[in-house]
Give the backbone structure.
Amino acid sequence: MAHAADLGTLGRYRLLSRLARGGMAELFLAVLPGPEGFEKPVVIKRMLPELATQESYRQMFAQEARLMATFGHGHVVSALDYGVEQGSPYLVLEYVDGVDLGRVLAVRSVLPLPLVRHVGLCLLRALEHVHGLRDARGELLGIVHRDISPANVLLGRTGDVKLADFGIAKGLRTPSRTAPGSTRGRLRYMSPEQVRGGPLDGRADLFSLSVLLYEAVVGHSPFAATTDAQLLLAVRGARLAPAGALQRAAGPAMAEVLLRALRPHPSERYPSAGDMARALAAVEGAGEAEQPWRMAGLVAETMAPEPSAPGPARGARERSPFSAALLETREDEDS
């Protein structure tokens, strides 16, 4: 891995370059050094020092770390370490060398249908793991991601598909710091119940994932809206565009899977991520074993330098899948 200029150390880690800075935290590419040339690349998310003295922000940051520490799945970005240095907490994350799905869709608009199916299956397996986590007493944690969107789907050079950014994820026993009716996430990918500020379970994530997959296969949102106000009403009522475009692009079988997950009321959707995964797996498509290398090729194509390629430092930031979306904070909303 090519090294940028070192930015000093943070605990055991040597900082190589700053990837992004947001309202609550900043991201660094770093390495964990060891003897005889050993180096492990990681990404470090560090709370901004000016916020680290505020207890509410520290609790939000620590909550993300505690949630991620419970994960152990190949399609979920791993939390590797957590620490505090000079009063500022930091979270050490698995480094995914690649791009996020948002960048791929910005370049290509749509993905080949077998790859859309593959991405959907990978993310459903990730959600099945996250939604099914239990505590030491065997009680469900009730984790809901609440922010399934292309920026939070990381695609690696080796064909990996990983779900990232649990900064606004919420569990059954997660304390709320705002009044009922608040919402978090990106409106375009929210479920109707999320827009209304109502109680959420894993079926809200299935709705959001289906919006993402619809966009990846059709090339535009399932909601016919041209303004934020129209979008708000369309999402709130799950008012979808006519299904013809989806059926033509995805075929009747996959369209049926996505449309069921996009139904207005959670009880009308699949009961769980596992149920939706089984329905999507039954859709006829190219061999699943072939898709990781196809994904690797797509990522390499997306990451290929343009003729007027930027310098190394800027290029490293642009290639990083850890976009500024990971750093968003909404001070008036719950965690």
About this structure: Residues 176-183, 309-326, 328-335 have pLDDT under 50 and may be disordered. Residues 113-131 form the longest helix (19 residues).
